[in-house]
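sry for the spam today, last one i promise. C-alpha cells for design, 431 residues
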C-alpha cells in the first residue's frame, strides 16, 4: 500500500476513495466466508496472485484483507478502525503516486469486536489449508476478546476519517460484541461464549449491513456446533420472519425486487436476499421455492429487469445497456477507457442524493456530474425512484464499494448453485 503507516500492509480500498475502513472490511469478509461456507468455490486460476497454490482464489483474495486487519492490531490487543487519506485533491487529480501519506485511525471497541468475529470465523475456514495462519488468526482474536472484556461498557470508535464512525452508539456496540461472541464460539467451542452472545443479543428487526452486525452475528451463531439449540431455533424463526417480509416486498414491487432505495440499494437488496431468503432455499429448495425465486429476482433486477432495462454491473457480454461510469477517484484520474473494468457493481437507484453529490460542470480537471443536473441524464423530483440511477460520477447512485461487491458475489454463487441443481423447482409459476 502506497505511503502506508509503519507496519500496516495490504488491504482493499473501500470504495471510490483510497481509504480502508474496518467496518466495510469486516462486512465484506463476512460475505466472502459465507460464500465459501455455503458454496465452496474451488477455482484456483482466476489470475490473482498465488495461482495454482491449491488454495481457492476466493480465500487468497480474502487473505489480502485479513493481512491488513492483522497489521492494525495495537499492543493492547485492540484494533484500529481505519487506515485512511484525510484529504483528497480535486476529483480527477488523485493519482496514487501523488497522494499524501496515510494516517492510522484509533483503537476502539467497535473495530475490535468486528475484527474478533471475522478473525475467529476466518480461522475455521483456513485451518485445512494453512494451520499456522489459522492459529495466528485465532490468537489475534483471543487478544481482541480480552481487550473487549476489559472494557465491557465501552462503545468507542475513533474520529480519524470518520466515514463509518459509530462512537457511543450502544445498540451498534452490542451488535458487534454479539458478532465477536458468535465467532469465538464457532472457533473455540468454548461454551462461555454462549453467555456472552446472550448478554449482547440484539433482536433481528432490520436488514443486515456494515452498519448493523446483529444479523451477521445470528447467522454465524447458527454455524457454531456448541450453540444453544433453543437459541438457534429462536434465531431461525426470527430470520424466517425477515425472509417472509422480503418476499412480500418483492411481490409488491413492479420488478419483483426486494431492496431499499438508499445509498447502495443494489447491495442492500442482496443483503436481504442473501441473509434471509437464500438460507431457507439452501436448506430446502423444494419447499422453499418462493424464497429461491426471491433471490433470483434480485439478481434479475441487477442484470436488467428494472426501470431502464439496465445492467447494474459492468462488463457483462452482450449487454446493450450497461454500466459504463462510476464515482472513483483513481479511474477518473486515469481517464480510463473503457472507464470500468468488468464486475463493478453500482450503488443503484437512490431516493435522494447524499450530501455534496451535485453537478459541477466547471470543475477541473474534469467536470463532475452528480445526482441532479446532468443534461445527458435529465431527471427531477417527479422522476420515479427506480429511474433515479445516474450512470455518471454521482456517488449517491454509482459509487464502487467492497461491501456491495462481496454480498453480490454471494448471491451470484447462489444463482450458480441453484441453476446446477437437478431437483431445482420450476420457479416460473405465475403469482
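last one done:
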Amino acid at each position: 500500500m502506497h505511503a502506508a503507516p509503519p507496519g500496516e500492509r495490504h488491504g482493499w480500498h473501500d470504495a471510490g476513495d483510497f481509504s480502508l475502513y474496518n467496518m466495510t472490511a469486516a462486512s465484506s469478509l463476512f460475505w466472502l466466508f459465507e460464500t465459501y461456507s455455503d458454496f465452496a468455490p474451488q477455482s484456483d486460476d482466476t489470475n490473482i496472485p498465488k495461482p495454482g497454490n491449491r488454495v481457492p482464489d476466493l480465500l487468497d483474495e480474502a487473505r489480502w484483507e485479513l493481512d491488513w486487519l492483522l497489521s492494525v492490531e495495537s499492543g493492547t490487543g485492540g484494533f484500529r478502525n481505519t487506515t485512511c487519506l484525510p484529504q483528497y485533491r480535486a476529483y480527477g487529480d488523485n493519482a496514487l503516486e501523488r497522494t499524501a501519506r496515510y494516517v492510522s485511525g484509533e483503537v476502539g471497541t467497535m473495530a475490535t469486536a468486528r475484527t474478533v468475529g471475522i478473525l475467529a470465523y476466518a480461522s475455521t475456514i483456513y485451518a485445512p489449508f494453512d494451520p499456522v495462519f489459522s492459529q495466528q488468526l485465532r490468537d489475534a482474536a483471543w487478544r481482541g476478546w480480552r481487550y473487549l472484556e476489559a472494557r465491557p461498557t465501552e462503545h468507542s470508535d475513533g474520529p480519524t476519517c470518520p466515514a463509518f464512525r459509530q462512537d457511543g452508539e450502544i445498540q451498534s456496540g452490542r451488535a458487534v460484541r454479539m458478532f465477536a461472541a458468535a465467532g469465538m464460539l464457532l472457533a473455540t467451542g468454548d461454551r462461555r461464549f454462549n453467555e456472552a452472545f446472550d448478554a449482547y443479543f440484539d433482536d433481528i428487526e432490520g436488514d443486515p449491513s456494515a452498519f448493523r452486525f446483529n444479523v451477521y452475528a445470528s447467522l454465524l451463531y447458527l454455524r457454531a456446533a456448541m450453540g444453544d439449540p433453543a437459541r438457534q431455533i429462536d434465531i431461525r424463526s426470527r430470520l424466517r420472519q425477515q425472509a417472509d417480509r422480503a418476499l412480500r416486498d418483492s411481490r409488491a414491487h413492479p420488478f419483483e425486487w426486494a431492496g431499499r432505495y438508499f445509498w447502495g440499494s443494489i447491495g442492500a437488496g442482496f443483503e436481504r436476499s442473501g441473509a434471509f431468503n437464500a438460507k431457507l432455499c439452501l436448506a430446502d429448495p423444494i419447499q422453499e421455492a418462493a424464497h429461491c425465486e426471491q433471490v433470483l429476482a434480485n439478481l434479475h433486477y441487477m442484470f436488467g429487469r428494472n426501470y431502464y432495462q439496465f445492467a447494474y454491473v459492468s462488463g457483462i457480454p452482450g449487454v446493450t445497456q450497461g454500466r459504463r461510469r462510476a464515482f472513483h477517484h483513481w479511474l477518473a484520474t486515469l481517464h480510463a477507457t473503457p472507464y470500468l473494468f468488468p464486475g463493478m457493481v453500482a450503488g443503484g437507484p437512490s431516493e435522494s442524493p447524499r450530501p455534496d453529490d451535485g453537478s459541477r460542470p466547471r470543475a477541473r480537471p474534469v467536470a463532475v456530474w452528480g445526482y441532479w443536473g446532468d443534461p445527458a441524464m435529465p431527471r427531477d423530483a417527479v422522476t420515479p425512484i427506480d429511474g433515479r440511477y445516474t450512470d455518471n460520477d454521482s456517488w449517491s447512485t454509482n459509487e464502487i464499494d467492497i461491501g456491495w461487491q462481496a454480498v453480490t458475489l454471494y448471491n451470484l454463487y447462489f444463482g450458480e448453485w441453484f441453476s446446477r441443481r437437478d431437483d431445482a423447482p420450476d420457479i416460473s409459476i405465475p403469482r
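The radius of gyration is 21 Å. ok im logging off now
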